[in-house]
């Protein structure tokens, strides 16, 4: 492992899915909050010098849980949000999965009006680079799965692929990146290991 400060990219855990509510306003479920709180057992959580999050409610809720543990107030950054899916809004699970597959499979094309994966990758990497330039010491970013997969592809030097998406369907995973050399220290791990 590389030495020096680490960026922990954390995806929010389980949400309350409500088709009548804008996706950006979905909150964490009680299970999601419990899962995020399990990070209190991670030794690195106590070394954080900074905490950042997406403006979407589910990410802000997750960051608020971590703020309660660490005492670090989260900094909200618009550029840490999920990929822009506003063209479709809520999609039923089967349609969502098919559109997400298309988003990753053809990164230079729009899937059903969603933002292109190449553009979203450039945005999230730029946001993470900005965060790493602002903090000395370890930092946590609470964001979203799809942009996390795009960031992971970039830092691994691999093509955009859904194979790099977080495991499972409920979120609540993280990966670690060395801030010194931008090397991925390890891939997705659950926030609540059994």
Describe the model.
With 194 residues, the chain is an alpha/beta fold. The chain has a single domain, classed as 3-Layer(aba) Sandwich (Rossmann fold). 34% of the residues lie in helices and 17% in strands. It has five helices and six strands; from the N terminus they run E-H-E-H-E-H-H-E-H-E-E. A six-stranded mixed sheet has the order 3-2-4-1-5-6, with helices on both faces. Strand 5 and strand 6 form a beta hairpin. It starts with 5 loop residues before the first strand and ends with a strand.
Short description:
The protein has 194 residues and is an alpha/beta fold. The protein has helices at residues 30-37, 57-70, 93-105, 117-134, 145-156, and strands spanning 6-11, 48-53, 75-76, 138-143, 173-178, 184-190. Helix 1 packs parallel to helix 2 and helix 4 crosses helix 5 (145-156).
Mean pLDDT: 96
What is the CA-based Rg, rounded?
Answer: 16 Å
Question: Approximately how much helix is present in the residues?
Answer: 25-40%
Q: Detail the poorly predicted runs.
A: none
Structural domain count: 1
* CATH-defined topology: Rossmann fold
* CA-CA gap between termini: 24 Å
CATH architectural group: 3-Layer(aba) Sandwich
Shape: globular
CATH superfamily heading? Phosphoglycerate mutase-like
Write the layout of secondary structure elements.
Blueprint: E1 6-11, H1 30-37, E2 48-53, H2 57-70, E3 75-76, H3 93-105, H4 117-134, E4 138-143, H5 145-156, E5 173-178, E6 184-190
